[in-house]
Amino acid sequence: MGRQRGPEAERRRPWFVRNMSASRARGATSDPGHGGRRRAWVELLAGRVKRQQLGPEGEQKVRGSAVRLLRSHLNLGDLVLEVDGPPREPLCLRRLIDCDGPGAHTDLSSSLIGSALRDQAARLGVPAAVLSSQVVASGLVQVCEADAGPPPKVLMMPDQRKKLSSLFEIAQNLLAQSMFSRLSFCQELWKVQNSLLLEAVWHLHVQNIVSLQELLESHADSQAVVAWLSRDLRLLCEQTEAPCQHADVARAMLSDFVQMLVLRGFQKNVDVRGTVEPEWMSQVAVAVLERMLASALEALAAGIQEGSAAHKAVSCWFSVFSGHMYRSIISTESPKRFFCHTLTQILTYKPVLKVSDAVQMQREWSFARTPPLLSGLYRRLFVILSPEELVGCLQEVLETREVNWQHVLSCVSTLVICLPDAQQLVNGWVSRLLAHAFESCDLDSMVLAFLVARQAALEGPAAFPSYAAWFQAAFGSARGYHSCSKKALVFLFKFLSDLVPFEAPRYLQVHVLHPPLVPSKYRALLTDYVALARTRLADLKVSIENMGLYEDLSSAGDVTEPHRQTSQDVEKAIMVFEHTGKIPAAVLEASIFRRSYYLSHFLPALLTPRVVSTRRRERGAGSAESGVPVGVSPKSCLPSQLPRVPDSRAVLIESLRRAEKIPPSLYSTYRQACSTVREKPEDAASRREVEPSCAEEPLGLLTTALRELRASVTDPTQHDALSAQMAVISEQLRSALGLSEDDSDVEGAPVQLSVRAPELQPWEQRVVDLLLTSFCQNLMAASSVAPPDRQGPWAAHFVRTLCRRRLLPALLSRLCQLLRHQGPSLSASHVVGLAALAVHLGESRSALPEVHVRPPTPARGLPVPELFDILLPCRTQESSALCLKFCTAAISYSLCKFSSQSRDILYSCLSPGLIKKFQFIVFRWFSEARDPPSWEDPASSPWRPLCLPSADWRRAALCLWKQRTSRELLQREGLRLTYRDWLQLELEIQPEVDSLSDTERRDFHQWAIHQHFLPAPSATGGCDGDLEVACATLVDVLMDFCQSSRSYDHSENSDLVVGGCTGNRDIFSRLQEMAADLEQGPAPLGHAAPRGHFLFGVFCRRLQALARGWDVASRLQRQRELLMCKRILLGLPPSVLVGSPRLEQLAAPDCNDFFHLVNSELRNFSHDGALTHDITAHFFRGLLNACSRSRDPSLAADLTLTACQTQCPLLLTSALLWWPHLEPELHHRWRRCSQSPLPAELRRLQEAQHFAASVLSPLAAPSTPGPAWLCAAALHFVIRRAGKESIRQELGQLDGQGEELLVFLFFFSLMGLLSSHLTPQAVGSLKALDVCAEVLGCLQRKRISWLPLFQLTEADAGLGRTLLRLAPDHQVRLLPVAFYSLLSYFDKDALLQEDAFLHVAVNMYLKLVGLFVAGETGAVWTPAHGGELQAQGDPVSLITNARLFLLQSIPRCPKRSFSDVAELLGASADCDPEVRAALLRRQQAVLDPDLCQELRLF
Predict the structure, then answer these.
(1) DSSP alpha helices (H): ranges in 181-278?
(2) What is the overall mean pLDDT for the chain?
(3) How far are the Cα atoms of 132, 148, 171, 220, 1372 from residue 185, in angstroms, in the given order?
(4) 477-491, 624-638, 673-687, 955-969: which has the minimum mean pLDDT?
(5) CB burial class (10 A; 0-12, 13-18, 19+) of residue 841?
(6) Mean pLDDT throughout 157-184?
(7) Closest alpha carbon to 405 in 452, 442, 445
(8) Fewest CB within 10 A of the end CB: N or C in the chain?
């Protein structure tokens, strides 16, 4: 051997030690000092180097001897397996061999091996490359067999890898010297393929010794190659998932093998090296991949258990379909073609099921029921393939191949669940299938369209329209696919008829109840099919007639059990009745057309016996009222309780009974059963104890599913599996609540929620608590790993699962209990979790129904996010603290969650009310927040501190307040806290439990009004520095608050001014202070401006916004508004009513605004021609105060009161009514401002009062001191206070006083009569009638015409208009009642002679009939008057007597009475034809006396 190879011998253990004779080798290597360990030849020579010094000739001689020795004992097999031992110091052998230094050689071992191989090949006469390949192959087999034994292995042990590394190093050197034949090497390996480990093949591949492709191509039998590689790949999958230290090596092997197979099997034309791809290799690669997938699908079909070796192997193989595995070859089309081929193989695997089997079994193949491994494989395939490619692949396979229907339909379910765009694509695909089916009568396309549509519909309306909706859309209109011809109709009904034996009952019900639209001439086709379907339903013992009223036909599940569907119908009917106040139309229709179900199912469920309650309970529709919980048999349920005040259920039952929709015997049995159950409450209690829980098992499954979700939430790599896990949770939730399969549809009637007393069933509360707890825990766990914006979509998916139609009311009720009633007991994690839940509910607001909130707030529709504004009040310190925590968490979460998305999405997720409450509380509690914000402070997000167990909410709130992003949010229009918002929130504060003391609260009010909101521009919610605007806004908000139910929620006495809550009075005190500032401020430039006009502007605007009408509701609403106006006026200085004249002017105070308010509004709620004492006294106080600031107080007062006579006479009559109480105060106030006597107009009122008193005294009455109507009003009030049985004598003293006095007195008496009818507290109606009768008698005796009083109009000038301004409009409308109430007191002969009599009598009669038809006469005959009105009869008797009087009087009227009868004839046409005929007959008689004579003769 050459000199150049000597020095490299030191690098390895000497290969020639084991090649000498056995005896010499054993002797040479025995070393007792080393414990019997065999010693290498280098070690044996180490000690001799120093003792023997050779010269050049001796050294050459030794070298030659050594070479001859080695050649004679060479063993090539052991030669290539020499492995370096532990590193040690170089021995002297290196120096012996390598005398020329390290640069004089290359690799000693490889050179020696090469030289030996060449020598051996030369002796044997074979090529050195072939011999080298055989030697290396033999060595490789020896390495693989070193650990041979069961079970079969594909991975190596560490010592095997070490030997293999040395062997491959030699092989690579041989390749470099062109002394290695890959083909021979492969052929040698195939001879011992059963001993070959797959890891060794992988190392050959990755170290570029022999690629896998070369190895596979060298075998002639492709089937054997496929079998060998498939077997080893399965073993590799099993060992990859097994716990071992070499899992990374196994995964790398699997990845490389799969990439090579995919690239070689699915790459067209040219491989990576540019050579033509052999067809053989492509077939082998495809065959291996197909066999691997087939074995996995076979294992799934056999039902492998989770955790088993087979399950792990399948899971490992399916993991190769992850997209990241193909990153190195993703630029090619190979992965996409491979995925398409895989999907095709899945869909066509063992197509043993028929179409009829698919029709019957497809419900079992929904997404939630598909094995997770298979659905996970689908999802991985969907990553590479676009939705269009997926649908195209499905369509191509279904049109050209026999398919496995289970795999096809489960793939459709996964497709519509996991891909957001799939619904539109599947819908289009189905439409194309239907079009093709009807165009060519293709049965296969028809079957496929129905199967795909039904399968997609199984996943709920969020993924695809319900089957009922799809069927109606496809065939329920004239534009349906079947409407083109008779042939298409026949094809459709033939297809549907063929499906009947295999159909589920639910689909048959859809076809029968929502049949295809068929022209009348082809109606027989539909009739035949319906008969067939009904027969099939009868065979299945499913009755169309006994279907529920609100049964959900869109679900493909089994037909609901009768008792469960009936209980759902009862709940729905109660909810509809509660919402509309009418018996639901479905109930009425069922009572007529479906009496079997109505009588045998619905009514017994509705009339479930209930115990009479000992306390008042409020229940929402569909909760505990139903008496029968969902999923529990009625026989096993306890009777619920009858509330003292009838609830919606009780009122519905009573309404049905009155409508004769409940048989008397059944109703009687119901009442008797209620009494019986009440007498035996012990039995009910005992039944409750033994009643088993029917939801334990589903709750356990739901708990398990939620626990598995938590593990995925904290693992970012599992975010793509969230959809599948949420589908499983949805399925378990449906089972736990007994919901239908299509209950995820949240559209429909609004949710009814009682905020004051929310209630839900115990099993509903258990489920909701479980879900809420899981959400909070998941959020905290996820937040400990990543911020919200990197937590994936799990929270949004979770909330969408909560928003089911049947679950949402229970969820909102529980949130109401937790936040509004149990808020202080919530922990920090609870608050954070519920706040995040509220954010995601806001994200889904467009898909959620409105919430109708019952007391304490009005019943009105609210979006779900705005519900939290009601659930989180700020009245007390505790509630404000909870609100601050919740708002801080919600805003922080949303800012972090949607930081990278559009601001509009962020704003839509938050309730504006909560954002404003956050600003309100921060302003209120933190004085540092009142300073201008520092925009330079970036302030980090407070979300992270909130997730800690001990969250510092004060620091978090201030941190959020200072954050730039939150400041931008708070300044956005609609989210900024405005002056109006601040007032509304501040009015709700209860000072007795406020966090601020009285002094702190007043200081805060002063800062908020005068420093913050008053100077702020109106564009940002301020007042532009205008104090009047601030006052007007405060008044507006104050009136809104006092009329809303919020003011009644924290105090039984909610009157703002008179004994209202202290918090309200604090704000009203601010109004009084600002009003005083306005009054004492500088006068406007120029002419004097009226004081207080802004207040009347507010009143006028609000009153104009109210509906005008004579119905009770409109009148009560307006009366309540006016009551608040009056109370605010009474709480402010009297000068608000009366503008003060300037000292240098003689003009009267400006009272026009107040006069207008009295004439237009207050007059209509006055009684007996007068206002109440408080507002009357307030006006006169203001008048005297204003006059005192005038240069001539008496003149100013006289001018004002003189204007009152024509502009607002009601104020003067009110003063006369309350004069005994008013006079002392007026004298006192006048003496304080002037030493002169009372002004002349005040003295006139005093004299009118004295005149009225003298009429009732024995002394002779003086002459009338002033206007007759004023004296008549005073006399009327005095007579009313006196309460005499008869005033005939007093009326006699009025002789010589003038006719006008009696006429006006009669007018006031008429108003008093009507007031007695309308006001129960007024004087008795019989006494008022007697007074009117005596005044009327006096008028008739003196021949004074009184009929003009019944002809007054606004167009009348003078006294007519004055009198109309003294009476409310509704009393003027009721004058016909007063007119005909006095019918028995009329002097008929005298009346007939008056020209106006006929016109007045007929006009009053027609108006009386109109009042009766409009129902306005009911206000006159009220039960409050007891038997007083029985003597006068009822409205019908009054109208009958009036009509008889007219018919008797018309023929006797003189000719001059018919001068304007044409107007009466036109008005009476629709009211009373007989009166009209009498008028016509009398008119004709007047025009033609002869005709009248002929009529008499006839």
Answers:
(1) 182-191, 198-206, 212-217, 222-241, 247-266
(2) 77
(3) 8, 22, 11, 15, 121
(4) 624-638
(5) buried
(6) 83
(7) 452
(8) C
Burial 326-346 (b: 16+ CB within 10 A, else e): beebeebebbbebbbbbbbbb
Length in residues, the chain: 1498
Tell me which of 591-595, 942-946, 1054-1058 is least confident.
Answer: 1054-1058
pTM of the model: 0.63
Token digits for 206?
A: 């990755």
- Over residues 168-179, the mean pLDDT reads 82
| 1328 closest CA partner among 1420, 1213, 1410, 1259 | 1420
- Which among 469, 431, 429, 450 has a CA at the least distance from the CA of 555? 469
User: SS3 string of 582-627?
Assistant: CCCHHHHHHHHHCHHHHHHHHHHHHCCCCEECCCCCCCCCCCHHHC
Question: What is the DSSP-derived secondary structure letter of residue 753?
Answer: E
> What count of other Cβ atoms lies within 10 Å of the Cβ of residue 1471?
17
Q: Which of 1288, 1293, 1408, 1298 has the alpha carbon at shortest distance from 1336?
A: 1288
> Are 437 and 443 contacting, i.e. CB atoms less than 8 angstroms apart?
yes
Are 269 and 277 in contact by the 8 Å Cβ rule? The answer is yes
Does residue 899 sit in helix, strand or coil? coil
Q: What residues contact residue 1454 under an 8 Å CB cut-off, 6+ apart?
A: 1392, 1393, 1395
Could you give the CA distance from residue 1073 to residue 1067 in angstroms, rounded to a whole number?
10
Distance CA(919)–CA(976), nearest Å, equals: 8
Q: Is residue 627's pLDDT more than 60?
A: no
Which range scores top for mean pLDDT: 410-424, 431-445, 550-564, 788-802?
431-445
Give the tens place of pLDDT for each residue, 34-64. 444 555 555 655 555 455 566 677 777 777 7
Q: What is the pLDDT of residues 816-857, one digit of tens each?
A: 999 988 888 888 889 999 999 999 998 888 778 888 887 655
Note the pLDDT tens digit of each residue in 628-671: 333 333 333 334 445 555 777 888 888 888 888 888 888 888 88
Task: Please count the CA atoms within 13 angstroms of the CA of 1208 that sit on its side-chain side.
Answer: 25
Report how far apart the first and last C-alpha atoms of the chain are (Å, whole number). 166
Q: Could you tell me the two tokens for 836? A: 């995040």
Least Cα distance to 429 among 462, 395, 460 occurs for 395
What is the per-residue DSSP string for 1008-1077? IIIIIISSS-GGGTS-TT-HHHHHHHHHHHHHHHHHSGGGGSS-S---SSSS--HHHHHHHHHHHHHHHH
Using the 8-state DSSP alphabet, how is residue 348 labeled? Answer: T
Element (H, E) at 752: strand 751-754
- Let me know: does 661 contact 585? Beta carbons within 8 Å: no
| H/E segment holding residue 1287 | none
Distances (CA, A) of 548 to 542, 592, 636: 12, 14, 21
- Radius of gyration, alpha carbons of the chain: 51
Burial (0-12, 13-18, 19+ Cβ within 10 Å), 1321: exposed
1047 has pLDDT over 70: no
Counting residues of the chain whose pLDDT is more than 70, the rounded percentage is 76
Can you tell me whether residue 545 is helix, strand or coil? coil
What digits encode the pLDDT tens for the residues 1305-1322? 999 999 988 888 777 554
Range of lowest pLDDT (156-165, 575-584, 1030-1039, 1406-1415): 575-584
Per-residue tokens: 466: 């319900």
User: Mapping DSSP to helix (H, G, I), strand (E, B) and coil, where does residue 1144 land?
Assistant: coil
The one-letter amino acid at 840: H
- Gap between the Cα atoms of 804 and 160, Å rounded: 60
- What pLDDT, on a 0 to 100 scale, did the predictor assign at position 1209? 92
For 836-919, strand residue ranges (E) read: 851-854, 861-862
